[in-house]
Structure formats: C-alpha cells, structure tokens
Write a structure and sequence with these properties.
The complex is a heterotetramer, with 2 copies of chain A (about 120 residues) and 2 copies of chain B (about 150 residues). With about 120 residues, chain A is of the alpha/beta class. Chain A has a single domain, classed as STAS domain (Transcription Regulator spoIIAA, 2-Layer Sandwich), CATH 3.30.750.24. Helix content of chain A is about 40%, strand content about 30%. Chain B contains 3 helices and 5 strands; from the N terminus they run βααββαββ. In chain B, helix 2 runs antiparallel to helix 3. Classes of the chains: A alpha/beta (about 120), B alpha+beta (about 150). The structure holds adenosine-5'-diphosphate (2 copies).
C-alpha cells in the first residue's frame, strides 16, 4: 500500500526508487516531501525510478509534473527511469513525454546528467 | 436490448479513503463483465478520477455529502454513473491540458483521461442538484461468456 | 455518540457472482476501520453468509430482486445490514446445527457462524417486506487511528 | 480463483491436494465431482489435503460434510490433512472435529488408513 521511496546516490545524481502507488490518497505527499528534501539539501540532479510504481492517477501525474517543476525552479533537473507501459501511456496522451527526459537504462540516465 | 443487465449501486461519503473501495468494486465488476487487464485498469482509473472530482470539486470534501456510483453491466458494456451533490460546472469551460500554457499544470488532466479511456463520457446536472458523470465502455467480445 | 460515522451502501442483484464483490467491499471497509486480519476474515465470512441467504432463501435466486447491504462504520465498530425482498422467516425456528441429528447436514450452519463471529446479530422484517439482518462487530481499540 | 484439485495416489489411498476456495460460488461443485469420480472408480480411501485452501464458507464446510458422507455411504472413509487455523475453527465450533479424522502429517494420515 501507499508509496515506498528508497534513496541512493551515484556521483552527483540522487536516485529515488519508487514502489507502490502515486495517487491522491497515497504517495503524492511522500513524493513531494522527498523531492523537497533533496532540493533543500542541494541535491539537484534527480532520477526518479518509477519501474515499480503500480498505479498512477491524474494526481500522481500532476505530482510528477510538480517534482519536475520544483526541481527546475531550484536550478536542478529531474528525469524519469523505467516508465511502465501505463505511466508511459498517461504521459504520452497528455504530451508530457515532450517535457520529461525518460530512460530505460540507469546507466544511460546517469551519463546524461554529466553531459 | 441488453440482455442480463445487472445494476450495482454504491454510495459512499465524501472522503478519499473510500476511493480504493470504489476502485476495487470496479475491478470486481470489470472482471465479471470480462474486460482484459489493461481495459479494466483504465476503466478503474476513469472511475477513480470521476469519484475524486465528485468528492473534491462537487461535494467540496464535505464528508456528510454522498457520492452515488451506479454500475450497469451487460455482456457488451459497462456504464458507470457518478453523482455528487455539488453546485455543478460547465464541462465545456475547463482548461485544455494539452494547451502549451497548461502543460506544466499540476492538475486538470482527470476529465481528459476519462474521455481518452472511455467510449463515452457525458456530464449532466441532476434535477435535484449536483453533477452526474456517465461513462460507457464497450467490450470487444471475443468468445461467449457463460 | 459514534463520532465520524460513515455509511457505505451497496445494492446488488441476486446472483452469487456478486458475493465476491460484497466480500471485497467488506474487506476494504474492515481495513479502513482497522480490524485485524482474523477479525476481518470472520466479518467478511458473516457478510457472505448473510448475503448468500438473502439471495438464496430471501430472494429465491430471482436476479431481478435486489440485496441491499449497508455498512455503518465508526472507530469503535462496524454495523452491517443486509436486506432482501423475500417472504421472511422466523429465525427462532431454524434447526440447531449442533444437534446430533443435524451434525451431518450439508447445510444449516450459516446463521450459527454469523452469531458466533459477530457481537450482535438481529433479524427483523422490513415494513415493506423482506428480511433485514443486522450485525454488529466491535473493535478492540489498541491505539488511536489517524 | 476457484478451486484447484490435484490428485495423487499412495498405496490404496487417494490424496486430493486442494488449493483455492471452497465457497458457494467456487469449489463446492469441483470438490463434489472429484469425490464422485473417486468413489465411482472404487477409490474409497480418500485423504483431503486442505492446507492450501484459503477460504471456506458454510457451503464449503457443508461440502466437506457431503464428501465425508458420500464416501462413507460407498463403504469408504474420508479424512482431512493440514487443517488451516480457519478451517479448524469452523469445524470446531460446529462440532465437526468429532466427525472428521484430521492429521497434520501426511505420513501419519496414510498409516491410519492401513490400521
Ligand atoms: N463533479 C464536479 N463538480 C464540479 N466541478 C467539477 C467536477 N468535476 C470536474 N470539475 C471541474 O473541472 C475541472 C477539471 O477537472 P479534471 O480534469 O478532473 O482536473 P482536476 O480535478 O485535476 O482539476 C476541475 O478543476 C473542476 O473545476
Ligand atoms: N434471508 C432469509 N430469508 C428467508 N429465510 C432465511 C433467510 N436466511 C436464512 N433463512 C432460513 O434459515 C435457514 C438457516 O440458514 P443458515 O443457517 O444460513 O443455513 P443454510 O442457508 O445453509 O440453510 C435457511 O435454511 C432458511 O430456511
């Protein structure tokens, strides 16, 4: 139930491994908190691994957008790793794939931050 | 016309803690009708979105106000109506989430998702007040069900 | 007295295919109230038994007849009412399943289980006909809920 | 979902490994069929392994009683193996533990048939 967030660091990239749900009842708040903490402690390269996220609704998509915007405002960048087919669909039909940089390989994702 | 139609009616108070319950009823029903996993997922998402709107925008989180969900099922389709007791709204005047100026809005995608995933989505005002969202999803029948 | 009480109302047609649905609503609700796994299991069993009785004995499998299930929840308890549209019966005149001559009966244990697992079980006749089974289960509160 | 029945034979004992639900909607019919087939083919020592049965309602208990009675009528004997806590409770409170012979060890159960 709800959302579990595991945090790792590789070089200057903070990776959040999310698992569970990002919906209005569960997950949105936790995700916002986790992002806020990273930004507050000056970690501005953020990679969200959503491969184990089982359910996202429009609030969850909104929270991903929030995460992106807040990181951006702080001068950082947030990217997405391991989109599930369903998250991919939800982002695609609301044209958000044009906004997010997305990766299927963690290695590629990490490299991209150092370009 | 629709043989063996069944109706399931569900009423909850306006609290987000009941959205999982409505979703699990939906999952149960789409399984009975025989929808595939992916279709069932999008139907349940659409129901969630409409119930959340009814709670948030319609009933404005007043937990004394009810949300009435009605499922009408047949072998060919599922029709879901979600009614709130709010002031109503004009669905023609909501921002387009695909408009470039709205792309980074944290909200405003719920109805768009409902319209994408369901075959028909209608909004109407209940004569006694409140909004009714009626959504239809047809089933592609590949084999006869028992 | 009971603060923050919520009501969930569910109506199904009289078909056994909906018993899982009612059970999953029950599971959802007992989880919201905060019952432990075992208590939740016996509550859901009691609800199943009463719904099956309403479908089978009450509505006599007439799928046009409804079964109305109402859950009233608070932090302290859950009350479940199951109403059918049948002819009613006298619960004082049902065979005792513990009577040695009934021990090997393939049926006749449903109400006994309901009475064992729930704190209160009441049968009454609805003024407009049909039976109402009302069951109450209290929760042992060990810690404050959110 | 529903009930899965796996059949094994050890000596002259037929073991049915049940997994899933024995309720009015699911399982009761399958179980009745399986027992009928065993009796019809003259297999009268039946051991029901209910260790993986996740849900039983009063109909399911009734079907266990049916299985017992039908086997008995055919001159056989039906015993139960690996009661779950919940099945144990349901049998106990309706005094059916006095009717069924029950075992927690398959070996012991098998031995008991040859006494
Ligand atoms: N049941 C309702 N009652 C009143 N207004 C509603 C209702 N449903 C939707 N709306 C209005 O339509 C808008 C768009 O809804 P939606 O696309 O679901 O996005 P969001 O809920 O994220 O704003 C809402 O912001 C609200 O103003
Ligand atoms: N809702 C109902 N309407 C009419 N009769 C009922 C109802 N519920 C129970 N009964 C009667 O009570 C009897 C005992 O019910 P129960 O203990 O659940 O066992 P079973 O359903 O296996 O017979 C039933 O056989 C039926 O005659």
């Amino acid at each position: 139930m709800s959302l579990t967030i595991n945090q790792r660091t590789t070089g200057d990239v903070s990776i959040l491994d999310l698992s569970g749900k990002i919906t209005i009842g569960a997950g949105s708040v936790q995700l916002r908190e986790a992002i806020r903490k990273l930004i507050d402690s000056n970690n501005k390269n953020i990679l969200l691994n959503v491969g184990d996220v089982s359910y996202v609704d429009s609030s969850g998509i909104g929270e991903l957008v929030n995460s992106f915007t807040n990181t951006n405002k702080a001068g950082g960048i947030l990217k997405l790793l391991n989109l599930t087919k369903k998250i991919q669909d939800l982002l695609a039909i609301t044209k958000l794939l044009t906004v997010f940089e997305t990766f299927t390989s963690e290695e590629e994702a990490l490299k991209s931050f150092n370009k | 016309m629709e043989q063996n139609a069944s109706t399931i009616a569900l009423t909850i108070n306006s609290s987000f803690k009941f959205t999982e319950l409505v979703a699990s009823v939906t999952d149960n029903i789409t399984q009975i009708v025989g929808f595939g996993e992916e279709e069932a997922h999008w139907i349940s998402l659409s129901v969630r979105e409409s119930v959340i709107n009814a709670i948030k925008h319609g009933n404005k989180l007043d937990s004394n106000k009810a949300v009435d969900v009605m499922f009408i099922i047949s072998e060919e389709s599922i029709t879901i109506s979600v009614r709130d007791y709010g002031e109503g709204f004009d669905p023609r005047h909501i921002p387009d989430p695909l408009d470039p100026t709205n792309l980074l809005n944290p909200s405003g995608r719920g109805i768009f998702y409902m319209r994408t995933f369901m075959d028909e989505v209608d909004f109407s005002s209940h004569p006694q007040g409140g909004t009714i969202v009626k959504m239809l999803k047809k089933r592609i029948i590949s084999e006869t069900t028992e």
